What does this fold into?
Amino acid sequence: MQVKIDAVLCSGHGRCAVLAPTVYKLDDNGYNADRGKTLEVPAGQEAAARKGAKLCPERAITLIEG
It folds into this structure.
């Protein structure tokens, strides 16, 4: 599984990192540190990645299953 973080939609709420700190990291300004990137989700962290994406109020995280 991969996650894609939209650089424009991410507005720094940080909910993704609160729910899944092993998947999502924040920069010093509270935005997702990987904005504009597609990341591999670590093995066993798929459920956490889904939760973090689901609770993003801006829908800035896209899950890529496969």
Summary: The chain has two helices and three strands. Helices lie at 15-19, 46-54. The first strand starts at residue 2 and ends at 5. The mean pLDDT is 96.
